[in-house]
Design a protein that fits this description.
Blueprint lengths: L2 E7 L9 H9 L3 E2 L2 E8 L5 H13 L3 E7 L6 E8 L20 E3 L4 H12 L3 E6 L4 H15 L5 E7 L1 E2 H6 L7 E2 L1 H16 L2
Parallel strand pairs: 1-3, 1-4, 4-8, 5-7, 9-10
Antiparallel strand pairs: 2-3, 5-6, 5-8
Helix pairs in contact: 1-6, 2-4, 3-6
Bound molecules: pyroglutamic acid.
């Protein structure tokens, strides 16, 4: 049975929770379609995220590394097409390359359009393919997992889904003026995404 490494992030910035962490924890140990899920929470810190993710990749040999993160303000699930070779610290000016002499952008090794359609049609949730994952930790983990696979000739696929706030979080954290989706629904959306990528 193939393994899917499903990563989420710890809370960061103004947020006290992160739906990506909650979903990775919720699906940890479960079977989705034909795949066994290993859920992993990553720190929102450049270098610490990859240290933890690379150790899990070496240990678990996943067929798919699907990373999740929060994009407060997103109106739907955003399946990222690209990661760019740029990183910006929170509240700092300027951007630097993630990998010196690395490709300017790497394409997620899943079909973002197909995954977004599967989330809409099978989970009944709004989702769209999206250009790229920004220049903070979410972009960093996607770029790094794609680069690591290339560098070591590993055969896993890698992708990223940005999530809106959960409704529960929006209410608990005074964020009700921003768009949100129920956490249970987003769990179904992520399950649909995993099924779509891992089925034959
Ligand atoms: N979202 C941030 C980092 C962690 C997270 O959940 C991002 O979009 O980069």
């Amino acid at each position: 049975m193939p393994t899917v490494l499903l990563t989420g992030f710890e809370p960061f910035g103004e947020f006290k929770s992160n739906p990506s962490q909650q979903i990775a924890e919720r699906l940890d140990g479960q079977t989705v379609g034909e795949a066994r899920i290993v859920g992993l929470t990553l720190p929102v810190a450049f270098g610490e995220d990859t240290a933890r993710a690379f150790a899990a990749i070496a240990d678990r040999h996943p067929a798919l590394v699907l990373s999740l993160g929060l994009n407060a303000g997103a109106t739907c699930l955003e399946v990222e097409r690209f990661a760019v070779n740029l990183r910006a610290e929170a509240h700092a000016e300027g951007q630097t390359p993630i990998i010196a002499d690395g490709f300017a952008a790497l394409s997620a090794t899943l079909d973002a359009e197909r995954v977004a359609r599967a989330i809409r049609e099978r989970a009944g949730l709004p989702a769209q393919a999206h250009s790229y994952a920004g220049s903070y930790l979410c972009n960093h983990i996607l770029y790094q997992t794609l680069h690591y696979a290339q560098q070591w000739d590993l055969r896993y696929r890698a992708g990223f889904i940005h999530l809106p706030l959960s409704c529960e979080q929006a209410i608990a954290e005074g964020q009700w003026h921003r768009p949100s989706l129920p956490l249970d629904s987003m769990v179904m959306g992520v399950r649909a995404a995993i099924e779509e990528v891992t089925r034959g």
